[in-house]
Amino acid sequence: MTIVLYRHPGWLPAYLYLSVVGVWLAAIDVRVHRLPDHLVLPAYPALVALFGAAALVDDAPGRLLRAVLAGAACWLVFLTLHRLPGSGLGRGDLKLVGLLGGALGWLSWPS
Q1: 3 in any annotated domain
Q2: What's the pLDDT at 61?
Q3: Which of 37, 90, 97, 99 could form a disulfide with 78 if both were Cys (CB 3.0 to 4.6 A apart)?
Q4: Count of CB atoms within 10 A of residue 67's CB?
Q5: Cα separation of 14 and 76, whole Å?
Q6: Secondary structure string (H, E, C) spanning 13-55
Q7: Domain span at 80
Q8: pLDDT per residue over 26-66, tens digit each?
Q9: Which residue, among 7, 11, 75, has the nearest Cα to 47 in the 3D structure?
């Protein structure tokens, strides 16, 4: 699936925000092996607001619901993996996966 942002300019702010936060988190994670809560947790309401605005612009409220459900589903799956003995997933990874799952869920269920 190809993401065509020029056809959906309302999506651009959300994905730009996620890109900036993602690069910032990746740099921090490489350096100190942590994903700080003060960056990850505020990204949830920010992305909901940005995708909510995109849903209004595109007149597609179903996309926002799908994004929230996909984020929650990914979080639950990774919570199960996090709880397995010897799992290498940290709590920061668990918090981040909800954001990424929501962003992918915005596009489609198969994503």
Answers
A1: no
A2: 87
A3: 97
A4: 24
A5: 23
A6: HHHHHHHHHHHHHHHHHHHHCCCCHHHHCCHHHHHHHHHHHHH
A7: 8-107
A8: 999 999 999 999 999 999 999 999 999 999 988 888 999 99
A9: 11
Between CA 107 and CA 74 the distance in angstroms is 14
Nearest to 26 by CA among 107, 73, 89, 96: 96
Please state the pTM of the whole predicted model.
Answer: 0.85
Quick check: 66 and 105 in contact, CB under 8 A? yes
User: Is 2 among the domain residues?
Assistant: no
**Domains in the chain, number:** 1
Q: 1 in a domain, yes or no?
A: no
In angstroms, the CA 75 to CA 21 distance is 18
Residue linked to tokens 């996909």: 70
**Amino acid at site 40:** V
CA angle, 69 then 75 then 81, to 5°: 145
Paired tokens of 102: 């929501």
